[in-house]
Amino acid sequence: MHKSLSLLTLSFGLLASAVSFADSGQIVFTGSVTDNACTINTNDMTKSVTLDPVRIADFANQVGAKAKPKTFSLTLENCSLATRNNVQIKFSGQPDQVDNTLLGLTGDNQVKGIAIQIDDARTGNKVPLNVATEDYEMRPQSNTFDFVASYVRTTLDVTTGDSPNQVTTSGIGTGKVNALATFDVTYR
């Protein structure tokens, strides 16, 4: 009897260990697969372009007159041409109230009659806000694209009264100039 009790105890012990309880958990895996041919240089992810001070007298009295152009660059690195060979860059932001192809000024106490125009340095052509550039052909590894930002006049001076009592009021004010643009890179 002792032998059968031991066998029964052993069988029950094995059965109990086979029917053990377990907890469960969850693992979340995240990642991405992109078809981007490059990465944006870390210095260009948040870029600051300081325009030189400008005087009202630096502008001709015509809408679209530019002053104090400033060159800036965007660099793409680690470029592989395995899937894409061209790139387009589009600048977006608050459009100017007079000309929506220009970057408008943001914040309090901004200068009136001024906006920011971005030009493609390779062609000299205006890059309208929210419109992609023409294709840039990419090279392996590093690619730098040059642009020019300029103050641009959006309103004319206003002259009132008759000679000799004419009074001319500038269409441009004085004060701060702040604008914010984002850029998108599209690989083609």
From TrEMBL:
GO terms for biological process: cell adhesion involved in single-species biofilm formation. The keyword Signal applies. Pfam families: Fimbrial. Keywords: Fimbrium, Signal. The keyword Signal applies. Residues 1-22 form the signal peptide. It is found in: Fimbrium. Residues 27-187 form the Fimbrial-type adhesion domain. One of its GO terms (cellular component) is pilus. Belongs to the fimbrial protein family. This is Type 1 fimbrial protein. It comes from Pseudomonas parafulva.
